[in-house]
Each structure stands twice: as structure tokens, then as C-alpha cells.
Amino acid sequence: MDASRTPTVSFLTLPTEIRVQIYSYALPTFSSYSRCRGLFSLFSVNRQIHNETTELFYTRTKFDISIGLTKKVHPIKNDCVTYTVVYRTPWEILTYLLVVDPANDDKPIKRTWQCGDLKKADYEVMSSKQYKLHNQPWLSLFPPPHYSKLIRRLRIVVYDYSGINNGVPETPVGEGMTTEVRTIFSPFLWRLRTMLSESASVDVEIEPTWDSLKHDEKLGFAYRNIGYSNGGPPNSTYHYATEEIRRARYRRYAEALEIVYILSCGSWKTTINLPPYVEWLFPSLTEEVTAKCKKDPLFQDTTIQETIGGLGIEMDEETAWTVRKGCLYLTSLKCS
């Protein structure tokens, strides 16, 4: 044996702490991850390295989720109201519809196709007919449990696309809407409950696209020199155009908080954030609504379990769960 030859050291025999340091340098570095657009080559080296790197990746990354909410009233159809929610995560993009018909108390939630027709490159997971045979309305396909249980941090941004009338937020949204939206948010709550443990944390942010102040903080008809951007108090010219506008905006944000509060109903730690200018305008609003919701029987665990268990979720006919570029969609089979 050549005494001058340097002995070979296997990477897998290195101490775990050293391997983790190497993984930390080799894996993509980011504070928030919204969509993986490349392959993580380390994940496919071998089973041990796969397990170690995926655990590091899922436990350290903050994953972005967005929920977009729209509401449409159909005056020629018995004043039916359609709520549409688009739920986007790094691993799935789902669209849910809830049609509320005053003449029909049955309110099933329907999953609808999201990304067009099934393509040859898509991997078909399950058709609507197969889905019915499973009889599992809360069937969760992505991410697999051995990965999802590793997730520790989520950032959920809720986009409210409700409209405004002449710069004034629609008022009031009313208990009817908050109840219906909490209903259509229930599938997402179920997903969080199956995914997250008590060691996880969730940051919920509300993006009020309806609020004119979001786009222009110096609108003269309602507010003037809001003064928040420079960190100081408003000057003497700050005022509300009318007390009605102020109350309307307050109610809309209170109702938005009541809607998203359901996303905190689990063992994980939750922080709910309004835009900074709203926090300045109504400094105690979040605390007031949160305290109210904590006492509300609708948010007690028993009631939530009954709500989740009693919901029916349907899939459009001739649709299928498919995987496209690593992301789960519902696609149409009609023209495939």
C-alpha cells in the first residue's frame, strides 16, 4: 500500500453537523419560496441524502400561499351569489366555487378546472369518476405527507377582490358573506390541519384590492396627507371626508379579519396582519376582532369539525386531477 496516498473519506460518513452545513451552501438560498422552477439535484443523489436535504429544505423555508376571493351577484337569477376562491401554493393551484341560491339551501362547494385541457405532457392522477368512487371529498394529494409534515412556516396572502362604489367600500358586507366565505375557506383550513403541527407558524396578510387608499394614499375626496409613509403623525390637514366613509372602511376590515380568522383555527401559531396604513387608521381593530372571534362559538373546534365534516365538494364532470410541471391542477377532459 502506498503510504503517501490520501485516504478517501465518504461524504455519508461525515458528522451530521458537517453534512448539514454543506447542504446549506448547496441548496438554493431564499427567505420565501413560492414556486420551484428547477430541479434540486441533491434530492435525487440517494435515499439518505434525499431525506436529509428535503428535511432541511422543508423545515427552513417559508412557503408562500395566496388565496384570491371574488364575489358576483346575479340579479336575474334570483339574486344568486357566486363566490370564487383561487388557492395557489407551490404544489397545487385549485379553484373553488360556491353558489348561494336563496331558493335552495343546499350549498355544495364545487372544484372547477383551472388550466385548460389535459395535455400529453400532463400526468393524470385521478379523473372525476375515480374521485367519486373514492368518496373522499377532502382528498389531499399534494404534497405527500412525508414532506408536508416537515413544513414549519407559511405566509398566506388573502386578496379581496370585492368592488367599491364611487370610492366608498361596499357596506356592509354582512354576516351572510362572512359565513359563506368562511364556508368556502374550510377546505383550506382542512389542508392546514393535515399539514401543520403545533411547532409551525403561519403569517396571514390581507390585501384589500378594493381599497382606494392602497393605490393612492392622498385621494382628496376621502383622505388627505395620510402621513404614515414617513413614520410620523398626520398633519392638521388630515381628515375623513365623511364619517360614513370611515365607518364603512372600518366595517369592511373588521369583516375581512373575521373571514380570515378561520385560518388560525389550529394548533399552529398565527399572526394576522392588515396593511400598515390600516393599522395606523384603526390601531386596535385587529385585537378587537380577534378577541371577539375567540369567544364566538362558530370558531370553537367542535363547530369547525362539524362544518368540515358536513361540507360536500363536487368536481366538474369530465375533469381530472393532473400534474403539470410538478404542480397539481384540475384540468378539463372534454377536448383532450
What does this structure look like?
The protein is α/β, with parallel strands linked by helices. It has a domain at 62-107 and 138-311. It contains 10 helices and 14 strands. The strands form 3 sheets. Strands 1, 2, 3, 4, 5, 7, 10, 11 and 12 form a 9-stranded mixed β-sheet that branches. α5 runs parallel beside α7 (243-260). It is globular. The N and C termini lie far apart (65 Å).
Helix and strand run: HEHEEEEEHHEEEHEHHEHHHEEE
Count of extended strands: 14
Task: Please summarize the sheet with the most strands.
Answer: 9 strands, mixed
* Shape field: globular
- Helix proportion: 25-40%
Q: Mean pLDDT, as a whole number?
A: 75
Low-confidence stretches: 34-39, 164-169, 217-240
Oligomer: single chain
End-to-end separation: 65 Å
Tell me the Rg in angstroms.
24 Å
Fraction of residues in β-strands = 15-25%
Report the structural category: alpha/beta
Total count of helical runs of at least 4 residues: 10
What order do the helices and strands come in, and which of them pair?
Layout: H1 16-26, E1 32-33, H2 47-60, E2 62-74, E3 80-88, E4 93-100, E5 109-112, E6 123-127, H3 128-134, H4 145-148, E7 153-160, E8 164-165, E9 168-169, H5 174-195, E10 201-208, H6 212-215, H7 243-260, E11 269-273, H8 276-281, H9 285-295, H10 301-310, E12 313-315, E13 319-324, E14 327-332
Parallel strand pairs: 1-2, 2-7, 5-12, 7-10, 10-11
Antiparallel strand pairs: 2-3, 3-4, 4-5, 6-13, 8-9, 13-14
Helix pairs in contact: 5-7, 7-9
Key words describing this protein structure:
alpha/beta; AN11006-like; 336 residues; F-box domain-containing protein; single chain; 10 helices; 24% strand; three-stranded antiparallel β-sheet; nine-stranded mixed β-sheet
